[in-house]
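hey so u asked for the seq, here:
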Amino acid sequence: MPKINKFICIHGHFYQPPRENPWLETITYQESAYPFHDWNERILAECYASNTCARILDKKGHVAERVNNYSSISFNFGPTLLSWMESKAPDTYQLILDADKISQEKFSGHGSAMAQCHSHMIMPLANSKDKYTQVYWGIRDFEYRFKRLPEGMWLPETAVDLETLEIMADLGIRFTILAPHQADRPHGELDISQPYSVRLGAGKSINVFFYNGALSQSLAFGNLLRDGKCFAEKLMQTNNTEEPQLLSLATDGETYGHHHKFGEMALAFALKYIDNQSGAQLTNYAEYLEKFPSDQEIEIIENTSWSCVHGIERWNSNCGCETGGNSEWNQIWRGPLRRALDWLQGRADSIFMEVSKDLIKDPWKARDSYIDIRISWCDRDTFFAQHCHRNLNESEKAVVLSLLELQSNAMLMYTSCGWFFNDISGIETEQILLYAGKVIQLAEELSGENLEPRFLGLLQLAKSNVPGKGNGSQIYKNVIEKARMDFQV
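ran it, structure tokens below
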């Protein structure tokens, strides 16, 4: 049997921003997702569920087989999405977990699921404490669900900086995936068929795989998924070499079925077709890294991402990146929005430290451990015993939980989708403003300080492009009026 030197890894980044009303902790009706109740339900039907039982047709157009695509690709799911799915779509949720176990059998004991930084914030724009918590929460959430430690971690929008990579390496992450333009290559061309090692501080390093940018772009925005056989044959094209080579593709997982109708079927056919050929072999990143460890070092270009040609300015300024539509619109609103949230987070952190000092031993360590309560991996009494100075009465326990919810919402308000699209009035930005509203409410309950007037003043500088929407202050007032509920009445 000829030796196989061509390996193929297809990665899907499956993610939706958190959509829950933070007062109700459930998703309210979203008209734009019609005929479904909300966007999570719609994309569940079109993509997440359909990829657990993708149809392969015979020559007569009859269903010959149904396959779980997740078991043969590399994938990550956003933790907040999996949390929703665990409750609202338990059958699909379980099939995703099962797929990771099946992939371990296929790929030398290495599961195909990767972890993800928890709340999908742009990591280079986050402060050091948030970076650590986001990585730690992502790992703990993964361990709770998949019953193993993750080997790889997906960076939101592949936005990268060395501090985040160092935290990941310190916490046991072996590799991540980046776009080829994020590699610093002063001494020649980048060989994307091999992993590289990035040297970090204190003698540590982390491995990086660079996906094929042209093929991934064609997969996401072109017509590669119109025919599963053509898709597979395109992937199996190889350079004649005796050295092992990896073809890695990475796109949003919603490519398969949501963005491209029947895309999950084309993927299923392609995966089976490749499996039945002798010229290439499916793998995942962890298996490939074990078989062919990186022997080359590379430096990464910090403050870059896969979806902004200006680095990470899409989440910070009017850089010119947008999603199409009205050419007269601008995204000047992005800068004032971030500055308003940065101010709010600063005040929230001060309140967190001040109110917690007589209650919690190490507030930031307690925040890191709070993920175990959120995923029901730790009971509250155990948590209080580990992190509090003394035995607390019930009202003091309630204060501690409110402090930690303050921090959780302060991180959620940096969810990247709030800046990604064209206008501040979009539902994604409205969602992060809801989290800001929850932060403001909790801060006032904990400290008596009303942060809303100053926050509204800062938001006034974020002007909407939509006639009648005004600015961020008006949009905030409108969404809060609809969503906020006073349970004390």
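Residues 334-356 form the longest helix (23 residues). Residues 315-483 form one domain.
lmk if thats what u needed
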